[in-house]
Design a protein that fits this description.
151 residues, flat
Amino acid sequence: MKRRIISSFILAALFTVCLSGQNPNRERLNAYKIAFFTKRLNLTPGEAEKFWPIYNQFQDEKNKIQLERIEINRNFNTNELNLPEKEISEMGDRFIDLEVREAALARDFHNKIKQILSPVKILRLYQSENLYKQQLLKELQERRVERRDFK
């Protein structure tokens, strides 16, 4: 559980950095992700043409939710001692609301891609998302070790 939470925060930080338009690696990561998913899902050109706009919209909305989550965490971590209990309670409520929004978003996305991809490709997509995140985390950890060893 602890590892999952840490991984989530690392991914959130990575996605936040990638979302900023000033990061030149964003395009490279996006191109890698498209190639990774297209290969793993074995998308036909027709499937890819329909799939990617829906997937990109889903990711954009998911990233907005993640940024809201990060903002709540940042606000709590910097102001915890000064926040009234009522405001902290509202933050907790907002967290749950974000979870519900994210679940509804995932359900909507799933229903949309069912019209485009076979059930096998949909499950491959979900597996590929997890594998992609694991590979990004592994790469980040390797870079961190390289930097530490280089110093």
